[in-house]
Amino acid sequence: MINEGALVETTDTPMVNAQQLVKSFGSQIVLNGVDFSVDRGQTVVVIGPSGSGKTTLLRCLNHLEKIDSGRIYVDGQLIGYRERNGRLVEDSDANIARQRAQIGFVFQRFNLFAHMTALENIIEAPIHVLRQPKHEVIERAQILLEKVGLSAKASAYPHKLSGGQQQRVAIARALAMQPKLMLFDEATSALDPELVGEVLKVMRDLAEEGMTMVVVTHEMGFARDVADHVVFMEKAQIAEQGPPEQIFGDCLNDRTREFLGKVL
Ligand code: ADP
Asked: Which is one GO molecular function term here (predicted)?
């Protein structure tokens, strides 16, 4: 019998539970004691000025950056570390890879494999990392392409696709791993303005379907309409957080108001 006491995972635990995160680059503190949690099925949008630590927070959640101290649990699992003799030591590469496989990450730059078609990009990891049967993976990939509105582009190579289409393939590729959590790091920032909407629509659909998501974005309309919870970061800390009605309506914090005054 394993998983007794505090180790039991229940559906009541938040999907993300990060406690007292501290992260520095050299002498610069980028996360200064950040507590961050995301309930299952929620979309949390992280906003704030450039350099406030938003991307670093996101990258720490799947151990793309190592925290200096604190704890991150995703679905009840400690991320990146395990306990040995009462101390935390970094987990093995294989375990970290296994954890990352359950967390989808969509980058600002889409990073598709240039020599593979849209469909091949999507099926690569489920076949080679998860070792799922090819016919099942292809079937699922076709459904995902339809979901992101790109059924007609299954055989297209990335250079034949617009930035918005490439980003939609990148989202389908992340979803093909059947993640429990999706992280979006300024997924529309590199796109021409006319292509932003098609990517935000895919993200909005996902949120409505109940995917658990953390979205770092400068798209305040998206934050206001789609977020269940908005986190405002400033100077390596969470300065204010709450439902969008609070943050965009009657925010309590002067700095939130000042920031929104500049970007809205
Ligand atoms: P945001 O996403 O809010 O713009 P970031 O998390 O990207 O903020 O960056 C926070 C601070 O950390 C910035 O000052 C940035 O220059 C610095 N930073 C981020 N990544 C690195 C890195 N790999 N090495 C050194 N400094 C970094």
From this structure: ATP hydrolysis activity
Q: What is the mean pLDDT of residues 106-127?
A: 96
For 243, phi then psi, to 5°, come to -65, 155
Q: Which residues of 223-252 are buried (b: 16+ CB within 10 A; e: fewer)?
A: bbebbebbbbbbebbbbbbbebeebbeebe
207: its two tokens: 């949120």
> Structural domain boundaries of the chain?
111-178
State both tokens at 75.
Answer: 């679905």
Compute the distance between CA of residue 196 and CA of residue 148 in angstroms, rounded to an integer. Answer: 14
Residue 3 has pLDDT above 80, yes or no: no
- pTM: predicted TM-score of the whole model, two decimal places: 0.94
Give me the amino acid identity at 243. Answer: P
Is 217 close to ligand 1, i.e. is its CB under 6 Å away?
no
In the reported structure, the alpha carbon of residue 107 is separated from the centroid of ligand 1 by a whole-number distance in angstroms of: 15
Cβ of 46 below 6 Å from ligand 1: no
State the complex-level ipTM: 0.98
